[in-house]
Amino acid sequence: MTSKKQVQHMKWWGWGVEGVAFHHEDKPEFAPFVVKAVGLDVRTSEKAVVLPFDQLDVPAPKIDASFFAALAAIVGEDNVTSDAMERVVHTYGKSLRDLVRVRSGKIDRTPDVVVYPADEAETQGIVDAAVAAGAVIIPFGGGSNIAGSLEPLAAEQRTVVSLDLGRLDRVLDVDADSGLARIQAGALGPSLEAQLTERGWTLGHFPDSFTYSTLGGWVATRSSGMQSDKYGDIADIARGLRVVRPGGTLVIRAIPSASTGPSVREMILGSEGRLGVITEVTVQVHRIPEKRDIYAYFFPNWETSLKAMQEIAESDATPSITRVSDARETGFSLATSKASKGMSKFLSGTVLPGLMKRKGYKLDEICLSFIGYEGGEAHAKHQKALVDAIIKKHNGMGVGKGPGVLYDQKKFDTPYLRDFLLDQGAAGDVSETAAPWSKLAAVHDGAYAAAQGAFDKLGKVGWIMSHVSHSYHSGACLYFTFAFVFGDDDKLAEYDLVKRAIQQSFIDNGGTISHHHGVGLEHSPWLEQDISTEGVGLMNGLFESADPNGQFNPGKIIYGGAAVTVPAATKA
């Protein structure tokens, strides 16, 4: 059994652990690219100073001694704490908003106590004790959330309990006949995959946050992974659930399909801790594929790329990854390659650029794609043949597996770049959406126009880029990254101007407010426009009925006291 001391957390002021960071010195094209994109020279810029932890003004814990003792009696004295560092680590997720605040010492409210149960029985004891004491319960997995789903509301006067599930980290059982695995909700991505691999299985779920996020967190935010085209989103993967609620545990059995009224399973998916504490998930798992390859391709432009991705989604091909970057993100990818490695070596000579020109490509419009194939040798080969025919039809060209291998190795490193830019006094953040194929181009162009309008209002040189990250029969997910250099005034006010412009553009052009990051506080102001007034009313009725005193992660999903500053017209 994992002890509290074995539960690892990310550093309090950024992504990952101490000593791991993004470095640009071995990427010769990166610094010139950033100068052109946002006007920042990272070779000479002064690194921002993170306030030392001992200089943070951490609010004192608000917890009655008798309640603290009751929690200690449930989990043991070593597994409950009001230590300042522990409480700060459990205050925020890892969004840009979170990091700007915590690095500058802006901590209005922290959890008052952090509790580490060893199993479901102890989790039930904590929930019952907290409900009886009138306390607030916020479940905590890996702390990777970027939608504001973790923080206590600033005005919260009740005792706040951060219920850390890090000790619930085991694969409990694998039903080989059904391909179903029972896994505790606190298991981090690498741990659960390692445990499954030992038995010859894989979950196939690899979000960007994989290294530092948990199964329970994936379910609570309706996560998607890089291979969701084949394995499905977590909503497809999670078949059974156990959720601790006041006085008892909700049990959803792992049934292939059922006609039992409105789906309670669906109610828990994406609920962000508002309906209880997820302790166990039964998931669909798959035998480790015989073959797994990722190939790189180029398309002449973005319009052609989208047409090809749509045709692949409509075809008999079932690749595991269908990712394509627009021209701007392609340029960024080339700029972040190491010297004479990755994609840069393909374009540094004359052969490939010459071939592209003969095919009618304009080098500043090319779009880089990664497509993955998994399964038996014959199956993977057949899938690739189907996709290759579609790519050829759309004037695309393949450049082999080499770049795909590098992509696979670096796929979890993106958050470190965000922290690097923040160190240099620049904002780098993401927004993602999903839309039907018929509206995808409008969503893409609308986000670009909205971001540029916001940059113009700020009087700044800004950058935005995008890629298709997941494809479906009816549409796809567009994932945007934007950046600009902060001014000397209110950093978060500048950030809000850009972020809300992009989010509103999603709604205005037919997209959703979030495809896989969840709602939390960050996206809640747009919920009513997304699911209608009646939809919000139904959801609010569910939360109020299931939690009449608002003790389970209050304020999340349904707007109320959010940290985000938005125009009144967009408030739900």
Q: Tally the structural domains.
A: 4
Distance between the termini: 44 Å
CATH-defined topology of the largest domain: GMP Synthetase, Chain A, domain 3
Structural class: alpha+beta
Q: Could you tell me the strand content as a percent range?
A: 15-25%
Assign the CATH architecture of the largest domain: 2-Layer Sandwich
The biggest beta sheet, please? Answer: 7 strands, antiparallel
* Oligomeric state of the chains present here: single chain
Poorly predicted tracts of residues: 561-572
Walkthrough of the structure:
This protein has 21 helices and 18 strands. It folds into four domains: 4-26 and 48-164, Uridine Diphospho-n-acetylenolpyruvylglucosamine Reductase, domain 2 (2-Layer Sandwich); 171-287, Uridine Diphospho-n-acetylenolpyruvylglucosamine Reductase, domain 3 (2-Layer Sandwich); 291-409, Alpha-Beta Plaits, CATH 3.30.70.3450; 415-570, 2-Layer Sandwich (GMP Synthetase, Chain A, domain 3), CATH 3.30.300. It starts with 29 loop residues before the first helix and ends in a 26-residue tail after the last helix. The chain has 572 residues and is α+β, with helices and mostly antiparallel strands. β5 and β6 (180-184) form a beta hairpin.
